[in-house]
Amino acid sequence: MLGTLALPALSATPASAATVPTAATATPAVSCHNLPPLPYAVHTKAVTIRSKASSKSTALGVLYKSHKFSVSKKSGNWLYITDKTTGVKGWVSGTYVYRDVRMCLD
Description:
Elements: H1 2-17, H2 23-26, E1 40-42, E2 46-50, E3 59-64, E4 69-75, E5 78-83, E6 89-93, E7 97-99
Antiparallel strand pairs: 1-7, 2-3, 4-5, 5-6
Organism: Streptomyces thermocoprophilus
Protein name: SH3 domain-containing protein
Pfam families: SH3_3
């Protein structure tokens, strides 16, 4: 009976003394949290460009998924954009135009 109790205690000592490289020592020093945010993208086929940050304002044009554009300011859930493909400036809904979320696997 005493030998049975001593055997698990002896077998546990070498296993805990062994050094195994951990994921923390194997990962690079650069974390994905330090990377710049992803660019804005159109997440539907097309979005109406409006004169004001309101869905009831005048439509100025259409921003398609294939268009190049830049975002200069935000107001609530609205983004003021410049459509570089057509030259139209105006407001689009942040419901359809937003940044993708970067997935960090730490």
